[in-house]
Amino acid sequence: MPVVLFALSAHTQVSIAGPACVTTGVVYMYNISGKFDSTTTMKVCITGGTIDTTGSPCSNGRFQPFIKVSWNAGISSGSIALTSSIGSANFKAGITTVLSSGTIESTSKIQSTDSTKVPAIIRSTAATGGGCSPTYIYQWQQSNDNMDWQDIAGETGQNLVLKSSLRKSLYYRRKVTVKGSDSEAVTEAAAIFINPILSAN
């Protein structure tokens, strides 16, 4: 949702509006409002990004109703500073990455046990990205064939702690969603293989 942030001066006649939480690799448009005419000039400088039309962090010229910005990777925030013949304004943006589900730890990816033993914890790293201040919702799932998946009731932690032994081999993965958004991702699958118990005879 567009957000208009504060101007530098109480007497300014300029404002900037646009996305305040952004991801890298996307070009964003920011609207500039003000009581400008054909003689109005402005300078815009981007911290943490570039002006898309120039590939440069700064631009000088006649007053424009919008600018397009590409934000840099590897940083968590950026800003737009505008000065003009009719006033000045600043805009701050949080920079995030696309949602990453996290990964199943290597020691948890494959287990081999039998039906008399409770499998070890399946551990996964935390999710990242997906928002500037995201709240992650985890849901573990299981599958018989690594294709069709069902949610496991009550299993919403970062790691999966199985409470009982298994009668058959199963696959597990963790789904993550970002609260309040449509962002969703899943980890790769972990497999628990159940070995047959050999008869003593």
What does this structure look like?
This protein is an all-beta fold. The protein has two domains: 3-96, Sandwich (Immunoglobulin-like), CATH 2.60.40; 106-195, Immunoglobulin-like (Sandwich), CATH 2.60.40. Helix content is 0%, strand content 45%. The chain is built from no helices and 16 strands. It has strands at residues 3-4, 14-18, 21-23, 27-34, 41-47, 49-51, 58-62, 66-71, 77-84, 87-96, 110-114, 136-143, 150-151, 170-178, 184-186, 190-195. Strands 11, 12, 13, 14, 15 and 16 form a six-stranded mixed beta sheet that branches. It has a five-stranded antiparallel beta sheet with strand order 1-2-4-8-6, with no helix packed on it.
CATH fold description of the largest domain: Immunoglobulin-like
Beta content comes to 35-45%
Tell how many strands the DSSP assignment holds: 16
What is the assigned CATH homologous superfamily of the largest domain? Macroglobulin (MG2) domain
Secondary-structure blueprint:
Elements: E1 3-4, E2 14-18, E3 21-23, E4 27-34, E5 41-47, E6 49-51, E7 58-62, E8 66-71, E9 77-84, E10 87-96, E11 110-114, E12 136-143, E13 150-151, E14 170-178, E15 184-186, E16 190-195
Parallel strand pairs: 3-10, 11-16
Antiparallel strand pairs: 1-2, 2-4, 4-8, 5-7, 5-9, 6-8, 9-10, 12-13, 12-14, 14-15, 14-16
